[in-house]
Amino acid sequence: MLSHLHDVVVAGGGPAGLAVALGCARAGLDVVVCEKRPGVIDKACGEGLMPGAVRALGALGVDPPGHTIEGITYRQGSTVARAAFRTGTGRGVRRTALHNSLRSAVERHGVPILALPIDNVSQHSDHVRAEGLRARYLVAADGLHSTVRELAGLAEISTACTTRFPRWGLRRHYALVPFTDTVEVTWASQSEAYVTPVGPDTVGVAILSSVRGGFTQQLSAFPDLAARIANAEPISSVRGAGPLRQRASNRVAGRVLLVGDAAGYVDALTGEGLAVSLVTAAELVRCIRMDRPSDYEHAWKRTSRRSRWLTEALLWARRQPSLARRIVPTAAKNPWLFALAVDQLAR
């Protein structure tokens, strides 16, 4: 006897996968989520939601607790550039709080979440099979190092850029009353430190670097920040992620569609990852509802283009020593230009 035919099986229960599942459920589709990790899932993440991400969550009926973010601040030594968001406020949200809010919403809509890893996939003319489940579509939302992306033949061979310029991320939380209402990005020669207020008495510190090393070692590149948090109690363990850049040859292979980090990832430098994941998740649901999966590749490129171009351009400048040291001074001397860039990021 054939197993039940679902409309959608989502592989991965992180924010992107849960956003797809919630969008499908709200559209009346039969959807199931497969996530091998139990409970609330944490991840190394800057945790600053841009205004666009807050709006995308609101459209799904999700309102996670956190701390209001008014804009972005860049620091390099004594040089400071600051720009406010023009399209609404952002929000600093602990990754666990975001996941809990999304998962609760999915469960309220009656979506099953199965503790099931997806390690085999077979496609047929009118459905796809995965671990004994059948569905019209399989959505891969299983992260940077996606198994389903590989199984679907969508993993792109590493390029010189991915192998020569790898980047990694680390994150830790501190019991500290926020000293800023913006995401503060401090620039060092080979790394950036992000301070994000995520609650009335909690800040998150994330470090992105092209050099591998432990959190304490990485923090030493930011003496002013290290001094500022020296007496604050760490309240979470260090989490890491990387290499950050991952490529996919396409977002669609038959009835398999990629979303979130599994769809390809440039870098966390601009902090837009969650916003892009949520917006492209909505596009994916729209394409599935129309039964036009092939439209999703164009929709993904269209909705993520601005973010990808901005991030690639900033990364390119970051790799040029003569340009890298001018990024923050240029932003400080040209506040209108920095405000324009921040406005683009916030949408």
Task: Furnish the topology, listing elements before pairings.
Layout: E1 5-11, H1 15-26, E2 31-34, E3 48-49, H2 51-59, E4 67-69, E5 71-76, E6 79-84, E7 90-92, H3 95-108, E8 113-114, E9 121-123, E10 128-130, E11 133-140, H4 147-151, H5 160-164, E12 168-175, E13 182-187, E14 191-199, E15 202-209, H6 215-219, H7 223-228, E16 233-234, E17 239-241, E18 252-253, E19 256-258, H8 273-289, H9 295-318, H10 321-324, H11 327-333, H12 335-346
Parallel strand pairs: 1-2, 1-11, 2-8, 5-13, 11-19
Antiparallel strand pairs: 3-7, 4-7, 5-6, 9-10, 10-11, 12-15, 12-16, 12-17, 13-14, 14-15, 18-19
Helix pairs in contact: 1-3, 1-8, 2-8, 8-9, 11-12
Task: Summarize the model shown.
Pfam families: FAD_binding_3 (PF01494). One of its GO terms (molecular function) is FAD binding. With 347 residues, this protein is an alpha+beta fold.
